[in-house]
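Q: what does this look like with thymidine-5'-diphosphate bound?
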Amino acid sequence: MNTRQCLICSASLEPFISFGQMPIANGFLTPADYSSEYFFELQAGFCGSCYMVQLIEQPRREKMFHENYAFFSSTSTRMAKHFETLAELVKARYLKASDPLVVELGSNDGILLGHFARSGIRHVGVEPSANVAQVAREKGICTISRFFDEDLAQQIVTDHGQADVILAANVMCHIPYLHSVLDGFGKLLKSDGVIIFEDPYLGDIVEKISYDQIYDEHAFYFSVASLSFLFAKHGFEIVDVRPQSVHGGSMRYFVARTGVHPVDPSVGAQLAKEDQLGLRDSGTYVTLRHNVERSRDELLALLKRLRQEGKRVVGYGATSKSTTVTNYCGLTAELVEFISDTTPIKQGKFSPGVHIPVRPYEEFRAHYPDYGLLFAWNHSGEVMAKELDFRDKGGKWISYVPSVQILE
Ligand code: TYD
């Protein structure tokens, strides 16, 4: 899909950054697959009409979410805790009806829905990546392996009735055809039901220069302003917003049919913050591009210097986000010896595009490098706590968010 028209309101987009040719962020591969590796131009644009920041071109969805999808939600203990807390909030506040139904889009391996399944609450997970959907089913979680749209919403209503709560974590921003999804929500949600979803927040990207959030799977970079426009078109409104620290800075949105629930003051307050940050001003994105270019130049210069000094640098966490950084900055295995990752499906493979080897975490532990390049910077608290021994033995961390630095 290659369009310069806004996917939300059809106005012309203002492209503000190109990262050049990019592979699929989660496309970890073996040398046999190098010759057929898929690339597309990773470019982001701003819509001056409805304020949605989005990719200009997105690969076909089947190239990203399929039976070999490498992202399993349950790899981080912090994320497991985060979803447990969300499930408790939903149960306490929104499941007052008798025999309620919870539907989750992009339910992955069931990290969130499992809390409802184990409490005997009726639930349906929608997860197009067949391998992760199967893992959820094996845990007893009712999962449909399809992409969500209006037709599937109708099928769920026919089979299970309307939903009290619709959940989606790190999923809505993945879906280019949001109008069809919102039409589906119109059918699926009870009249007083609530949609709760969270995604990386545009305000954090701009403030932290965390450009690595920009990759193929993230079709949109949401703000309260842009989402307010979108939901209003479908008879919904944002009734509450809560910033979250996960995924490097996310926003949790609570959405209901217009006029049904009171609107919390947090919504107006966040809109005011967005205006201070300039999220509705195209000049903000030109500044972001300059900041990103400076970050790239500094990271590359640092890694080249460390190589000249004969230091070993190992990447920590083969994140999807790191694909943007490694390819945009030109980080090859000459600069980053390997990437350590705990996910079995990624181990023994090579990173997309630049083909840095991905090795099991045990190799990091067995022979500490001089520097750990924090590709999983969004988990830095968890990682720092886990890796005290690395620091004690003289290891140092390199981070590039919010700026390129060696953490002393
Ligand atoms: P994640 O932070 O979800 O980022 P993205 O959405 O960009 O993929 O991915 C975390 C990756 O880092 C995952 O592959 C597991 C890995 N990881 C480790 O190897 N060790 C760790 O201690 C943590 C927290 C993550």
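The first strand starts at residue 13 and ends at 23. The radius of gyration is 21 Å.
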